[in-house]
């Protein structure tokens, strides 16, 4: 068992060295001890329109017994696009069980980005600020809780109530992840009316 652990560790080291030399500045070591890495992938054009960051964690059993844990980060990647790309990566893993697959994943993602760049897909609007919310997205962020003026006493009782059982947890809205200079940010929003809701 120890020999196979050593072999897996050596396979991981060899793969990381190869990827680092192939992708140069686009390859980033996030945490060497935890084996977390990130690679910026673009559509290979002189002025890339489509980019994506692939973050991977290599568990101890990778590549022979476990797949890498991964996250796809791009402001434009959501819904059907995300699902299709994730399915493609998982299919590659299944077809190459027990082998190092990060290079295959990176090249598959690049292939998808090149196809998007060559198709009629509009360029992603990655310069949009948090203040510029699309009209159709505004409804997603409406607060569910709107107190009625006539019900102020009930509202006061609710706010000062000591029993957390009758306290409803608010719905949490999660924003889309945004990657900028090798850092990923994601906003979370929830309407709260008591300090207990905040701590819960």
From TrEMBL:
Cross-referenced Gene3D superfamilies: Ubiquitin Conjugating Enzyme (3.10.110.10)
Domain of life: Eukaryota
CDD domains recorded: RWD_IMPACT
InterPro entries: Impact, RWD_dom, UBQ-conjugating_enzyme/RWD
Domain RWD: 14-116
CC per GO annotation: cytoplasm
GO biological process: GCN2-mediated signaling; regulation of translational initiation
PANTHER family: IMPACT-RELATED, PROTEIN IMPACT
Protein name (database record): IMPCT protein
Gene name per UniProt: Impact
């Amino acid at each position: 068992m120890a020999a196979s652990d050593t072999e897996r560790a050596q396979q991981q080291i060899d793969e990381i060295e190869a990827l680092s030399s192939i992708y140069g500045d686009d390859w980033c070591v996030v945490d060497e001890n935890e084996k977390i890495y990130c690679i910026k992938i673009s559509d290979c054009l002189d002025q890339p329109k489509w980019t994506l960051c692939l973050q991977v964690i290599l568990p101890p059993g990778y590549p022979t017994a476990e797949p890498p844990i991964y996250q796809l980060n791009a402001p434009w990647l959501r819904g059907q696009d995300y699902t299709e790309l994730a399915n493609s990566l998982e299919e590659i893993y299944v077809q190459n069980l027990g082998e190092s697959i990060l290079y295959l994943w990176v090249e598959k993602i690049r292939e998808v980005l090149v196809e998007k760049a060559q198709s009629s897909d509009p360029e992603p609007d990655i310069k949009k600020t948090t203040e510029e919310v699309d009209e159709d997205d505004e409804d997603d962020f409406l607060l569910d809780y709107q107190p009625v003026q006539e019900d102020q006493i009930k509202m006061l009782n609710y706010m000062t109530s000591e029993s957390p059982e009758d306290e409803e947890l608010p719905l949490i809205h999660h924003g889309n992840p945004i990657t900028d200079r090798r850092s990923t940010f994601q906003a979370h929003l929830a309407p709260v009316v008591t300090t207990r809701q905040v701590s819960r």
